[in-house]
Each structure stands twice: as structure tokens, then as C-alpha cells.
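Researcher: Go.
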Amino acid sequence: MIKVPYSKRRGIKRFLVPRKERRKKKRQIALGVAIGLIVALFSFVVFSIALKGAQTFKKSRKPIVKEEKQLQPITFLIIGSEKLKKGEKSEETSGLLVTLYDPISNEINSILIPKETFLEIPGQGFEKVGKSLAAGIPTAILTIRNFFGIYIDHYLKISARDFERIVGDSKFERAFLNSIQSDLTKSVRLKLSDKIARLNEDKIKIMMLPVTSIKIEGQSYLEPQREEVERLVSLIWGKRGIRKKQETKVVVLNGCGLPGIGGEVAQKLIENGFRILDIKNANNFDYEKTQIILYKNKKSEAQKVKRILGMGEISIRGMPQELVDITVIIGKDYSSRELEL
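Model: Structure:
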């Protein structure tokens, strides 16, 4: 009998196909369906695993970013608060610790500022840094930020007794456990105190601010040695690349004669990112208009000063010097407006 392919058979001829051949064809169809189902199931499983992996990866990225943020070095200002004596209204600080905690290297580097240190206090002029707390914590922070040229991330106010203990035995965890006032929550302080308590003693350093002793009107002051201070700040903050962009350096001169006006202008400028190098009287008090004298190519900064003060005549002087970027001479137009307010 001549074999004709199954696909070409018609009508009754199909029934003439041997039973063996029909079974073979059914097995082939069943096998094809089974293979198709297995491939479909395998593809579904692979897709599900891939999707779940992508979601897990996406979720796992958040803690990594969070952890990186937590590992950034943090600058703290630790303020020792002296108890008010009977009859006194203003609070003083027993000293300041400008502290850098680096959780990556597990180090603490701190600069101790004695309360007798003579610094420019915004709104008060040159005074012992112990007086900076009298105008509140923001003023104390501005004083340190302006002097060192670094930003303070957080502050901790503690008792004078705890301050002395920290300086004596370098137990910085006390500042976080016993803080009287802070911008950190209690839970964050507890976590930081636990981490800092685990640091090795050789990883904690407290350095005295480089100063020289001077006497003014019979009173003893400590004058910072600026070159040594800059070197120390660069060593601690600069080498890690976390020191902020160099701020525009400004000298404020009182050209109108109104007492305290220089400190008020200086505080406004510090709050807006400028660094005040000095506040003093001008060569005379007869300036009618406020002057903004620019020495370097920082016209945008001079315009910013004008916006902050609400006035000022900008002039450029090509003096080759590196110390000052801008000099502000306060005129009677500014002082009269302040008196009206």
C-alpha cells in the first residue's frame, strides 16, 4: 500500500492511516503542547524573579543613601554655660569647643576657645567670647562661624561643670547625654553618644586655640594668632574637603557716629554668608551716603551687600591687596533710616 502523508489525505482515506501512525502524531502534538507550557511557565518564573529583584534593589538603595548621609563629618559647637550669679541678667559661657566628629575615620578633633578670647561678636563689637551667649545661642554660633570661616551643623549647650569634665578627660559623650539645650532630638543625641563613647582615646584630640595674652584698660584678654588659627582650621577641616567655599571678606566702618551701628550691619552680613574681618570707626563721621568699596572682581557680592542694606553707592578701587574684598562705610542715610524704624 502506498503511504500518503497525513496532511494530504482527504475524506475516508484518513481512516486508512495505520493506528500506530495516528498515536505517533498525537504524542508529537502532546509533546509540543507540554514544551510550550513549560517554556511559558519558565518565562513567567524568570520574569517574576527579575521583577522582585528590581523592587528589592530599588528598596535597598534608600538605606545606602541614608547611610552615606550619616557618614558625613559633622561640626558641633559645644557651649559651656555658666550659672547666673545673683543679680545678673545676662548668661555667659565658660568656654567653647568647636568640634569635628568624623564617623568614617572614627575621630574627634576639637578646638578649645577660652572665655577670655577676644573675638568680634556680632552686634557687640570686639569682646570676650564669654559674652557671646548674652545675646543668645544664634549670636554665639555666628561669632564662631565668622571667625573660623566654617559652618556649624549643630550645637549643644551644657553646664560649666560638664564642660570642664569634657576638657579634662575628653568624654565627649557627656555633651550629648547631659545637654541643657540642643537642636538635635533626644534619640539622635543618644545614638551619637553611644558611637562616641566607643571611640579609642587616641582618636580624640582637643587643641587649644593659638592665642597671645594682652591687657586692655587693665583687663586681661587672649588675642588669637590668626595665621596659626588658619593653619589649624585648614588642618582639621580643609584636608577633608568639607570647608565651605571661601566667604567674601568685609570690613565695616562706622562713618555716621551712631554707636553700635557697625555691629548691627556686621550681623546682617554674617547671616547672609559674608565674613567680617573688622569693625571700627571711619576716619570721620561725616559720611552722608553709605559707601560699598570693592577691591576685587566681585561685583555680584557688592550688589548683594547693597540689597541687604537697602542702599549704598558702589565704587571700585584697584588696590592690590589680599586681606579684604569689600569695605562698607555706613553713612547717615543708613543710620537715619534705622532710627526711624
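Model: Residues 245-341 form a domain with the Alpha-Beta Plaits fold (CATH 3.30.70.2390).
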